[in-house]
Amino acid sequence: MDDYYPNLSPIRTGLACKCPRCGGGKLFSGFLTVRETCEVCGLDLRGHDAGDGPAVFIIFILGFLVVPLALWVEMKYMPPLWLHAVVWGPVIIGVTMVLLRPLKGLMVALQYRHRSTSQQD
Asked: What is the pLDDT of residues 70-84, one digit of tens each?
């Protein structure tokens, strides 16, 4: 059955939140809910779950970017602590919301590529 589908990049399909097999169907039915099946090729997606992987990657990414930036702002401008909370709180929440869905799509696409679920198509 896989012979009829092109060998798609899991990075491209995952970050685009598309079906990892055909690249055409939507991967999510809600914000983070993986569809049961692809509406285009019928791939069973029920066994694909990214777990906490995307959240862990986001924690590492934000820690790497935001902490040095917040320290630089503190050393350069010395704003009051309440201003740090007002600025960095929304930045962290916003970047998390932007990255969470594509990173979950990437994890699902990598699971499909490497067949790390109990269900095979």
From this structure: 999 999 999 999 999
